[in-house]
Write a structure and sequence with these properties.
Elements: E1 3-4, E2 11-16, H1 27-35, E3 39-44, H2 57-74, E4 80-82, H3 95-108, E5 112-116, H4 130-145, E6 167-171, E7 178-181, H5 186-194, H6 197-202, H7 210-225, E8 230-237
Helix pairs in contact: 1-5, 2-5, 3-4, 5-7
Length: 238
């Protein structure tokens, strides 16, 4: 049975591979949380530099970073960080990624970690891309790594270990276990996605409508769980 996602936490770190990952559904939930006074921070593993075919990667990185920062402001998020050393489209699961994520968790000391679906499929015959799969798996491992002082202990003046992560939640998973009612904040989520104008244009689909896409998805999910508009999450308790 799908249950409401626990919201008895005060700090969350949202970790995804690319600018726009959070905006295809989760941003409405983020707007709900920040409006309730929760502290939410974004951490992007890449700048999405290979996401627009017609744009030079360096320029693309600048454009997409700016779009993500603007998108975050729409839903009440002030802190947006980007990792270095990981390449859009070629993110590798391994100790380097686990280290970067564990150190970020130690710095921000969240009680909740949020990301997007890391399963192989989005449901049916679809196949999820490697960046999403690798970031999600590394995030689950990094949530534990962050609390072990003997892992990633350099630099010596680095942040103290943090074992305070209580849950890790992945939106839009085909194995979802929980939901968030975003009825009062769906418009914020739509406005947040619209900030990714260059990326959406680069997709080459002139018929894409952010409002119709998000509203239709949230309405269908809400019908499943008994509210008007909702977003699904797969939740792991630590």
């Amino acid at each position: 049975m799908t249950e409401p996602l626990p919201e008895d936490w005060t700090r969350a770190l949202c970790v995804v591979a690319h600018p726009d990952d959070l905006e295809y559904g989760m941003a409405g939930a983020i707007a709900k949380w920040t409006s309730a006074g929760k502290d939410v921070t974004y951490l992007l593993v890449t700048r999405g530099e290979h996401g627009i075919d017609s744009m030079d990667p360096d320029e693309c990185a600048r454009v997409r970073e700016a779009e993500e920062r603007a998108s975050a402001r729409v839903v009440g998020v002030d802190t947006v960080e980007f990792l270095d050393g990981h390449t859009d489209g070629l993110i590798e699961y391994g100790t380097a990624l686990r280290r970067d994520l564990a150190l970020a968790i130690r710095r921000h000391r969240p009680e909740a970690l949020m990301s997007i679906n890391f399963r192989e499929s989005w449901g049916g015959p679809s196949f999820n891309m490697a960046d999403h799969r690798n970031v999600g798996l590394a995030l689950l491992d990094a949530a534990r790594d962050a609390g072990n002082r003997w892992l990633f202990s350099e630099p010596l003046d680095g942040p103290e270990p943090w074992s305070g992560v209580r849950l890790v939640a992945f939106s839009s998973s085909p194995s979802s276990t929980h939901y968030v009612d975003i009825g009062a904040h769906l418009d914020d989520g739509v406005a947040s996605l619209r900030e990714h104008a260059a990326y959406i244009e680069g997709l080459g689909d002139p018929d894409f409508d952010a409002d119709a896409f998000l509203r239709g998805s949230a309405r269908a999910t809400g019908a499943q769980v008994g509210c008007e508009h909702a977003v699904l999450f797969e939740v792991f308790q630590l």
